[in-house]
Design brief:
The protein has 188 residues and is an alpha+beta fold. It has a single domain (3-183), classed as GAF domain (Beta-Lactamase, 2-Layer Sandwich), CATH 3.30.450.40. The chain contains five helices and seven strands; from the N terminus they run ααββββαβαββα. Strands 1, 2, 3, 4, 5, 6 and 7 form a seven-stranded antiparallel sheet that branches. The longest helix has 36 residues, at 148-183.
C-alpha cells in the first residue's frame, strides 16, 4: 500500500467531512469513494447498528466499478452470530480469505459468493466508546492478504466516520434546540 496515496486519501476524506455542509450522507459518500480507491477494493460501505444492537443497516455503499452508491441492506445478528461477536471484539477483521475466516465464513453462501467477494477488511465504528457501526471494505476476486498499513488506514477511516456521525448528531441537536427556542419565542 502506497503511504502517499493513503495519506492523500485520508486527507481528502478529512477535508470532505470538515467542509461538507450537505450533511452526513454527503460526507459518507465521499469517504467511501476515497476508501475504495486507496484500498483498491470494489466495495466500501458504512453500516449502523439498530437501536437494540441486533442488526446493522447499510447507510452508504460505494461500488467502485459502477461508480454507484446504494444503501438499505440489513444484516441480523441471528443470521451471522460469529461476525457480530468478532466485530465487537476486534479493532479490525482482516479476513484474507473471507470464505474460510471464522469471523466471516458464515457470509459465504448468501453474500460473498453471489457478489464475488474473496476478502474483507472491516472495522468497528465507535462513538464515545460505544460501537455504533461497521466500516466494511470488500475485495472482489480471490483471497487477498491485507497489510498492517491497510488495516491501520481502514481503522482511521472508521474513526473519521465516527467523527462525522458525532458532528451530524451535534448539528441535529443544535437545530432541535433552535427550533424549540423559536417556538417559545426566544432567540437562540
Amino acid at each position: 500500500m502506497d503511504p502517499v496515496r493513503t495519506n492523500d486519501a485520508l486527507g481528502r476524506s478529512i477535508a470532505a467531512v470538515a467542509a461538507t455542509t450537505e450533511g452526513l450522507e454527503s460526507s459518507l459518500r465521499k469517504v467511501m469513494e476515497e476508501a475504495a480507491s486507496a484500498l483498491d477494493v470494489e466495495r466500501a460501505s458504512a453500516w449502523l447498528y439498530s437501536a437494540d444492537g441486533t442488526a446493522i443497516r447499510c447507510v452508504e455503499l460505494f461500488v467502485r466499478s459502477a461508480a454507484t452508491h446504494e444503501s438499505g441492506v440489513e444484516l441480523h445478528e441471528r443470521d451471522y452470530p460469529k461476525y457480530f461477536a468478532a466485530i465487537r471484539e476486534a479493532r479490525t477483521i482482516t479476513a484474507h480469505d473471507a470464505h474460510t475466516d471464522p469471523s466471516t465464513s458464515e457470509f459465504s453462501a448468501g453474500y460473498l459468493r453471489p457478489l464475488g467477494i474473496g476478502a474483507m477488511l472491516d472495522c468497528p465504528i465507535r462513538v464515545g466508546g460505544e460501537m455504533i457501526g461497521v466500516l466494511c471494505n470488500e475485495h472482489v476476486g480471490p483471497a487477498r492478504s491485507w497489510t498492517e498499513a491497510e488495516a491501520r488506514f481502514a481503522a482511521s477511516i472508521a474513526d473519521l466516520i465516527a467523527i462525522a456521525i458525532e458532528a451530524s448528531r451535534r448539528r441535529e441537536t443544535e437545530q432541535q434546540l433552535r427550533t424549540a427556542l423559536e417556538l417559545l419565542g426566544e432567540s437562540p
